[in-house]
Automatic annotation (TrEMBL):
PANTHER family in the cross-refs: DEHYDROGENASE/REDUCTASE SDR FAMILY MEMBER 12, DEHYDROGENASE_REDUCTASE SDR FAMILY MEMBER 12
Name listed for the protein in its UniProt record: Unannotated protein
Alphabetical list of Pfam families matching this protein: adh_short
Coiled coil spans: none
Amino acid sequence: MTPPSIPDQEGIQRAFASFSDAVLEAIIAPSWSTIGFAVRKRLEGWDADPMPRLDGRVVVLTGFTSGIGLAAATRLGELGATLHLVGRNPDRVDATASALRSAGSIVHTSIADMGDLEAVRSIAGEMVARHASIDVLVHNAGALSPTYTLSPQGIEMTIASQVLGPFLLTSLLLPSLEAGATAGRVITVASGGMYSERLDVDKLVMTPDDYNGVRAYARAKRAQVELNAEWTRRCRTGVLFNAMHPGWVDTPGVEHSLPRFHTVTKPVLRSADAGADTLVWLAAADEERIGVGGGFWLDRHRRSITKFPGTSAPAGERARLWNWCEENSGSGPQPT
């Protein structure tokens, strides 16, 4: 009779890491707080820093003048990436870009509100003209707005800036993402808030009468995650599409948009650097570590896109969302 095998030390460590991560993920508050990040960094399987270098690679990043975007731009620049950064406020863009250049980063900038589709078309043209290819596109811009506002094209601004604008920019830059020596990457900074919503295209755009900023934001983030999966299904040219959520992060946006939440949770909120970690990892890590696209990530691990009953997308709803984005962004036909 063959005696039972005894797991080696490495196997025991991997099993413990997997169990610990699963326990954290099941309990939202510690998982998304600084506690979850601190614990996971010490578990088996966390890639040792430093991350791979990005010298010579072009990274486009929207929303970079504060918070997670600034932390990501700083770290990507330190890894050697050529940065093309997009922001709304010219003074803040110039000041932040100047500080990044002083630290040694190569920085180009474009001015646009991602909710203004004509401005998005304009900056896409700038990027295509400047760069022979683009290696990474990061969609980070997007705030939680407590008030109902329309974009220049007449679409509620949360959806315009966080769904239609990114969809259009991805569509316009896709040939550049396909033109590099290595597979391009598209990374969307979503939010755990999307777990509360199910994709429903008919309810995606709220009206002035029923507008709720928190719910509009959650619906936009749900749409981002579902589009991430749809881009992966349709685009078969090697470009990797992934979405991530940064956890609960202490940023000016959170403090302004959710002041009560910020006050209560501030002691356990993550730093902006911790919030940006998975974003930077998805941009820099070797492709074999990331695997296939279409993932939703937290702390360098793939996560389920649903947590609650009734929040899975109905059959065909992703395709409806795709068609809605094509029609309302004016992007023209995309991969089928």
